[in-house]
Every structure is written in C-alpha cells, then in structure tokens.
Prior knowledge:
The complex is a heterodimer of chains A (226) and B (225). Chain A is mostly helical. Chain A has one domain. Helices cover 85% and strands 0% of the residues of chain A. Chain A has helices at 2-23, 25-44, 49-54, 56-78, 84-90, 95-125, 132-158, 163-189, 197-225. Chain B has a domain at 10-96 and 157-221: Rossmann fold (3-Layer(aba) Sandwich), CATH 3.40.50. In chain B, the strands form 2 sheets. In chain B, strands 3, 6, 7, 8, 9, 10 and 11 form a 7-stranded mixed sheet that branches. A 4-stranded antiparallel sheet of chain B has the order 2-1-4-5, covered by helices on one side.
Amino acid sequence: MGSSLLSESLLVFRKDLQIERRSRVAMAQVAPFAFLVLIIFAFSLDGDLATLKRLTSGLYWIAVLFSALLIIQRAFTLESQDGVRDALRLSGLHPNAIFLGKTAAIFLQIVVIEILLGLGVVVFYSAELTGWGLLLATAAVAPVGIAAAGTLYGVLTAGLRVKETLLPILLLPALAPLLIAATRTSGSALGEVAVNGWSWFNFLAIFALLYVGLGLIAFTPLLEES
Amino acid sequence: MPESPHDPVIALRHAVVLLGRFPALAGADLTVNRGEVVLVSGPNGAGKTTLLRLCAGLSRLDDGTAHVLGHDVMTDRRAVRRAVGYLGHASGLYDDLTVADNVAFWAQAAGASKADATAAMNRLQLDGRLSDVPVALLSAGQRRRTGLAILLAQRPRLWLLDEPHAALDKAARDTLDQIIRQAAAGGAAVMIASHDHERAGALADRTLTLAGGHFVNADRVVANG
C-alpha cells in the first residue's frame, strides 16, 4: 500500500509537471503576474523605498499568495475539463495519491515563484536578505501549507459551476493565519519586526502539517462523493 | 460479497436514480452476464447515460439494488469504478498533454503496462505522428480513438460505452467493432448506449429499450452475423 501510494503520487506529480512543461502557464503567465503585483505595490506607495523595505515581507507574501491562487486555480481547472474528474474517479488511483501528487506539484511551482519574487524584492524594493536560515525554512514550509490547503479547497470547488469565484473566497480566509505567520517569520529574519521568528515558524509548520493531515482525511470523500 | 464466476456482471433490481428530483432511472431491472454485448436504445432523456453512469459507479443509487462485478453500487462505488471501463460523451483527456502522454498516464493509473499502452495506440492507429500531438488539437474522432485506446489498455471486465461510434470514421468504427467482439469473446461484458441501431445492433446479443427511466421491452435475443 505504501509503495503503491508513493508510486501513484509520483505518477500524478509527474503528470502535473508535464502539463506545466507543455503549457508553461506558471512560467509564462503566473510569474509575470507575480512581478506585476510587486511593481504595482511599489507604484501604490509612490516608490518610497523606506516604506517598501519596511513592508517587504507582507507585500512579498501577498504576492506569493495571489500567485499561488492562480496556480491552484489552474491545477483544478485541468481536472474539471472534458470529463477528467470522472476519469480520475474511475482511474483506480487512490485519492490520497492524487492529493499528495497534486500538492507536491503545486508546492514546486510555488517555490519557483517564491525564488523569482525573492529576486524581485531585492531588485525593486532594495531589500537586503538576512537571517537566511529562518528565511529558507519559511520559504520551504509555507508553500506546503498553501499547496495542501489549496488542493483541499480546490477539489471541494472543482465540481461546482462557480469554482473560479468560490475558490478564492474560501481559500484566502483559510490561508490568512499562514499569511500572518509567514510575514512575521520573514519580517523577523529581515529585521523588520522584533518578534520571535522561530515561534512563528513553528506555527507555520503546524499549519502545514494540519492541512496535509486534513487533506489525507477529507480528500477521498470530497473526490469520491461529489 | 466475493465475486463468483457465475454471478451476473450487472444486476439491477428496481434501480432508481434521481437527478435533483427528476427520476432519470425509475425502477430499472437488468441482468447482464459475462461475454454479453447489450445495446441500450431509447429516445433522448430516456435514462441511457444515467444507466451507464450508475453501472460505472458515477451516479448515486437512490432506491433499489445494484451490483456490478459483485460490488454493491450503493455501498462500494469505489470498487465498482476501479473495475469498469467507461467511455462517455466527454473524452476524459488532458488537453495540454499529447496523445501518447494521455494514454500512458491513464493506462499506468489503471495498473496497465507501457507495452499495453503502446499496443492499444497501435491498434487505434494513434502511433506515428499523431502520438505527439496535443489532445487540444485533435478532431472529435481522434479524441474518441484516444479514449478507446485508454480503455483497451486498461482491459476492463465491463465496458460501458456511450455512443461509441459517434464521430468515428469507417475504419475506426470497424476497429471498434472488432475490439468489442474480442472483449466479449474474452469474457468481458459490454453495454452500449447508442442511437446507431444498425451499427451497434449488429454487435449486440440483446437490445433493450429505455423510456421514461425504465425498460419497456422484454430482453430480446438478437442473432449476430
């Protein structure tokens, strides 16, 4: 069962990355969108570098979240097109393998966007990256929570006609605690705020674990019974 | 309930399926045995697609009993889904992936080997330059052939085919007919919903007519040529 779950998860993971490799939606559309969000924030603050530097963490994670939303939306649009949802249910793949495979593929795409946005805040906001250990740990764990929650809410809304509008309405409030924790953690690493960054990181890790666990419990009935 | 070789592949007793409050199946009784090809005909809205979806474990049974390959459709839909092959109106293919990618993915998902996937593609004449074409660029008939190749690679014990000849050219229709005959000869059961009585009727051992959500004729045995 364990190796079968792993091999089925890898099959779904590879398939999602193969779709991205062929369609290049994340790289050709989501990445430019992410940069646009960063630039628009800069415009809205009149290019005030001191303010931008002070708000770098918050603006960065909002840009990550909006970009992740597009990636998640796209990941479940694929599974709703032309009978694919039925085909998945008939496929014999264990729903938890689908959950893990899709979460992993979304995670990887978010990490790529994180790296690009990291370069973006250095270039556009003149941010100085410090506290690398905490920054890298946050950048590794926060997308696990975003991807797991996104996959869970994605399958919840995928069978509905109003999925495009419903997904952000459901997902953004669910991810609000993660946004706060990630902002605090990286704010602490960058010296923007005087908080204990590692205690906020622990919160992030618990959030990620919680949604992975919740996904493993709830994804099966959401896929099978909807 | 363990499946016995003598059990029917499909056993419906007074099966009711509601779509909202509308009874799409309103007390259907049906038995299909191994090696049988059954044609289900009837006007639009008669319940043909709902019947196939019920037997695929995709529609919920609201009343009556339904067993498919020994699995109770009411309580064990997942086991039913894993055991059947369903070709519906939608293709069930990823537009961004090529024909070869799609066949390989769905075949592997069902536990079939790469060799099975390749053989199925060859059989449906999807090898050569067509194999590397993204599904988004295919014609309706080519999509249909890709869906059939996936089914062929999966080798289900129950084939549920909704208008399988639609959009296919003559050569592909002939290939499909051969595949259906071979599947039945190999012990699989095949249920076809179709308006193409001439083509599908020639394949069928029995033709049943659905109207208003239930069968209106007694099972009729048709001599196949």
